[in-house]
Amino acid sequence: MSKPLVVVVEDEADIQDVIAYNLKRDGYEVLTASRGDEGLSLIQAKMPDLVILDLMLPGIDGLSICQQLRADPKTKSLPIIILSAKEEEADVVIGLGFGADDYVPKPFSPRELLARVKAVLRRSSSQETVKQDQIRRGELIIDIDRHQASLRGIGIKLTATEFKLLTVLASHPGRAFSREQLLNRVVGDAVVVVDRNIDVHIRSVRKKLGDQTGLIETVRGVGYRFADQ
Prior knowledge:
With 229 residues, this protein is α/β, with parallel strands linked by helices. The chain has 2 domains: 5-126, 3-Layer(aba) Sandwich (Rossmann fold), CATH 3.40.50; 134-226, Winged helix-like DNA-binding domain superfamily/Winged helix DNA-binding domain (Arc Repressor Mutant, subunit A, Orthogonal Bundle). It is 41% helix and 21% strand. The chain has helices at residues 13-25, 36-46, 62-71, 89-98, 110-126, 160-171, 179-186, 197-208; strands at 5-9, 29-33, 50-54, 80-84, 102-105, 134-137, 140-143, 148-151, 154-156, 177-178, 216-219, 223-226. A hairpin with a 3-residue loop joins strand 11 and strand 12 (223-226).
C-alpha cells in the first residue's frame, strides 16, 4: 500500500521542517513548498491526499490557494488543513468558508497536528454526509428520516433548527465549522441572521445533551465542531 501524500505549504523553514519530519516519521510521504504559487502548482501536479496550508505566504496567500483549489473540479474535495497565528482568526473563518476542512493554530504541537491530519483523512475516506439514514456517535443516535434524536435510548426534544444543527455537526466529527457555515447549512444563505444567534442554538442543544454536552466543542475564534471520538 502506498503512503498517503501530504503537501505542506509553509514559508517558515523551521516550521516546515518540523511538520515534514513528524509526518514522515508517522508514515506519510511529504512534499514541501515555501511560496504560495509554487505550492499551488505542486498540489495541482501531484494531487496529494491532503494539504497543510499556511495563510501568510509569499507569491499567493493561503486563502487564495484554498479558493482556487475549491473552484477546480479536480481538487474540489481535496482535504485542506489551515495553519494560522491567533491574529489571523478572521482569515481562518474565511478559509473555512472557502471549504478548508480544519485549522491548527500556531504555535502547535506536532502531536496535535498529526491527530488532525489523521482525523481529516479519516473523514475524507469515509465520506460521511447528511444523506445517511442514521448517524451513530457513541450513545447518540440521529434518525434522519424520522427527524428524531436519542441518547442512551431516550428521545431528545429538539426544535427543527436544533436538529439540523446537531445533524450537520455529528455528520462531520472533528471538523471545525464557522458560525456562518452552520447558519448557511441550517437556515440557508438567503436568510439574513446575525451569526451569533447560532450560539443560542448551541447552548440549547448542549443543555439537552445533558452530561454529554462535551460532544459539541467550541473552537475559539472560529465556531464549533463535534468531538472526534
